[in-house]
Amino acid sequence: MSLTGRRFTVTDAIGIAAFLAMLIALYLAIVESPIERVQGIHQKIFYIHVPTALVGYIAFGVVAFASIMYVWKRTDRWDRVAVASAELGVLFTTLMLATGSIWGRPVWGAWWDWTDARLVTSLVMWLVYVAYLMFRSLGESGPGTYRSAAVIGILGFVSVPLSYFSIWLWTNILHPVPTLQSSTDRPEGSILVPFLFGMLAFTLLYVYLMSFRMRVEESQRELNELRAAQEAS
Amino acid sequence: MSRPQQASPPGYLGQIRILLAKELTVEFRSRETAIPMAVFAAAALIAFQFSFDLRGGTLNLVAPGVLWVAIIFASLLALGRSFSREVERGSLDGLLASPIDPGALYLAKVSANVILLVVLEAVIIPLAAILFNLQLFQPTLLLTLLLGNIGIASVGTILSAISARARAREALLPIMLLPLLVPVIIAVVRATALAIDNGPWGDIQPWLAILAAYDLVFLFVSSLLFYVTVEK
Amino acid sequence: MENDFGDFSPIFVFVAYAAVWIVFFAYLYYVARRQSDIRSQIDALKESEREDEDSAESNG
Prior knowledge:
With 233 residues, chain A is mostly helical.
């Protein structure tokens, strides 16, 4: 099937919607949102930093859910969901760490700070899923590897609440507790709207990349089967 | 005349006891894990001495971390062999073909690894106390060690089973283990530091509670999921 | 403009947004490349299979 001669799919529609939403989110964050009093223009990084973080958490939640479903149902599809979501979770978390670091340099005066619990536990979470992907790439593709990967996908999920709740647990200087929960006065709509649009854009992007990445996984397994069949004959 | 065996098969705890006895017999005969672990940890302590200059004012700050890094690195020797030995000998398939509950097999392996860690610590803690002049003989430290051992063994044993059949398993085990052990490392190092400083029980207790909770969650979830990693 | 947080130049904001966009497009390109790679390998395998069958028929 060539790229030119194929039908317009739902995936394509989501892809276009994601791209448009990203553009609008960019406009809202850069042009429309107000300049924050203390951090100035640097605060605008918030509108990509927090959505990439939250979508990263969601992606790892999907890994855990798909892993449980794979252990239960043993259908190939759930394993494909798990591997695709793990890769995307690492991608989003990498961007979260990178944008956080870029934000930190002008505002905290350092790229990195080991005393901040959220920062450190997020790195741990990232490492857990890098290890997960490494395990998958080193194992031969087959049910044995998929089952073990599912167990890692379930156990590794402890790192997600560890990162998310770390700001309530111990030393937390740099990451504030979310405003909507910590204070009664609602944030100005001018901050909330660009943020929510950012969330929408990155979530759409995640869904689009998921279906794209899962299709690759499907083709990969088709290829593996063909190769195995040819070697057998 | 052969009589069919009438004795009922051992229950869950009975299975754990039998499997643990087997593990300990194998280890006692070969001594191929406990002694290398202790020697390795001692060598690590000496290497740390030259890396950090473990004397004077900063000793109590650095010592807990040094001690636990030595213990965790040494534990990799036990955890790495825990299942790869069975896979190499082909005895794992035999064990799984028997009517043994996989959860019991997991818990027996965890117990064996905890015992190996206790043996290691029985050597290395007095050694560290003598070499670095530390006040290590505190009852709270014993509890910290035990909970820490269970944490290392419960996470490490299931990852050992997962990595046993993989390529590059020597690298995979620590890559997967260390990030998942971070909560354990944080808690044991804080609790150990407090114990060495004779800190109040009220300060140590929250860290031990976190440790205990982490241990219980991992023991429970892993013993339920263990069958998934070993089934054919 | 100078304050406690250093200068307010937009360079950090620009780098952060550029990094996100570039990484996503790079990832998209990488996944698309992989997909077309795998597809062409599948096509080649199927092609060779068909040829094997054809030659087997003509020989038989």
